[in-house]
Design goal:
The chain is of the alpha+beta class. The chain is built from six helices and twelve strands. It is globular.
Length: 219
Amino acid sequence: MEEQPLILDRYRPLAELGSGAHGDVVRAFDTRMARRVAIKRLPLPLDRAGRPLAKAGLAEARTAALLNHPAIVTVHEWDTDSDEAFLVMEAIEGASLADILDETGEPLTRDEVAAVIRAMVGAIGFAHDNGVLHLDIKPGNVLVTRDGRVKVADFGVSALTDATGRARGTAGTLGYMPPEQLRAGELDARTDCWALAALTFEVFDDQWLRLHGWAVLSF
């Protein structure tokens, strides 16, 4: 990446990490705290006069800030400039589960799947206990550090549940969304359980799952 101006007069861009439906992500150096961070850049929707219509990323940052858990990516800060919102998160040295599957071309071993699913269950269960649904669980949102720790990322389409533990939403990823999410219906913790089951089929030997049932997913 060529030398670029500081982001928010503080963060020096180092490398592009990827892009998705909710924004681009770059690795940057925090010149105040002397640490590396990951920054999600979200374009602000503008009105005809060029003024921001909404504070994109604010709901995501507020939601993620509620979740202090070792298996959830930490959010440090949220801010905006004239045309972008910036979600500043801890930098994860590793790869996404999607990238790992693409590189190997094979499903994970039983021990590897057990480690990934155990961490994800802890993270998602913690989020549910705090009234937060993820709503976009997929291999691309599961990060594995170089020392083997698992981190659930991107609560960008998550929703704060009401007192009954339900929310509404349609954003997500085809292949991991249950029927009620596709229909923009009422969602609850079972929506994430469905996505986790779909993810498990993808990363594991599905023949073994058929033989041994779904006990591995109970939480």
